[in-house]
C-alpha cells in the first residue's frame, strides 16, 4: 500500500491530527500482516478490535496519540469478541512536538466495556463477552509515554455496573525499554468476574522520572511473572 498525502499546516493539534482518529484498525480480520508503518494520529496508532486473529505487526512507529490498543472490546451486548494470536515486534512509541500532537498516552493498552449496557454503539454499549489470548509485544521502545502498559475493563461504564466477562490471558511482553512521564509503569485493572491469567515479562526496563519510585498495579491477576518489582 502506498499513500502520498501532503499536510500544509501540521503545527496545529486537533486540526490536522484529529482527536479520535486512528492510524490502523483491524476488525473481523484474520491473517493480517502489517510492516513498516510510521503513524502520527490523534487517537490509537494501531487498534486491534473484535474478532481479529493471527495478526502480525512489525516495525511500527507511533508519533503521539493514545498508543497501541486492543479494543475497545465487549461493546456489543450478547456478542462475542475474540482476539487471538497477535504478535507485535519492533514498536516505537514517541512523544512529539505538542503543537502537532500533545498526547502520548500508552505503549500498549487493553480496554473492554463493562458487563452493563450503557447506551448504544457507536458511542455507547457494553455487555459483550469473549477473550483476548496469546498476545506478544516485543522489542518495544518508549519515549516519554504516560504509562507503558494499561489494561482496564470499565470503558464507557459506571461504578455500579456489572463487571466485564471478557477475559485477557497469555499476554507476553519482551525486551521493553525507554521512559515514562509518570511513576505508574504498569496498571492491570482486570475484571473481578473473570480476572486476567498468565501475564509474563522478560527484559522489561522502563524508567520513571528522576526521584520517583516505579509503581506496578495489578488487580485480579493470576500467574504474573518477570516484573522488576512487586505488582499490587
From TrEMBL:
One protein family per Pfam: Glyco_hydro_28
Spell out the reaction equation it catalyses.
Answer: [(1->4)-alpha-D-galacturonosyl](n) + H2O = alpha-D-galacturonate + [(1->4)-alpha-D-galacturonosyl](n-1)
Keywords, comma-separated and alphabetical: Carbohydrate metabolism, Cell wall biogenesis/degradation, Disulfide bond, Glycoprotein, Glycosidase, Hydrolase, Polysaccharide degradation, Secreted, Signal
Q: Indicate the secretion signal residues.
A: none
Q: What is its main location?
A: secreted
> What name has this protein been given in UniProt?
galacturonan 1,4-alpha-galacturonidase
Sorted alphabetically, the Gene Ontology BP terms of this entry are: cell wall organization; polysaccharide catabolic process
The protein's role, per its UniProt record: Specific in hydrolyzing the terminal glycosidic bond of polygalacturonic acid and oligogalacturonates.
Which EC number(s) are documented for this chain? 3.2.1.67
Q: Name one GO cellular component term.
A: extracellular region
The lineage's top-level taxon is Eukaryota
Instruction: Provide the GO MF annotations for this entry.
Output: galacturan 1,4-alpha-galacturonidase activity; polygalacturonase activity
Organism equals Marasmius oreades (fairy-ring Marasmius)
Q: Recall the taxonomic lineage recorded for the source organism.
A: Eukaryota, Fungi, Dikarya, Basidiomycota, Agaricomycotina
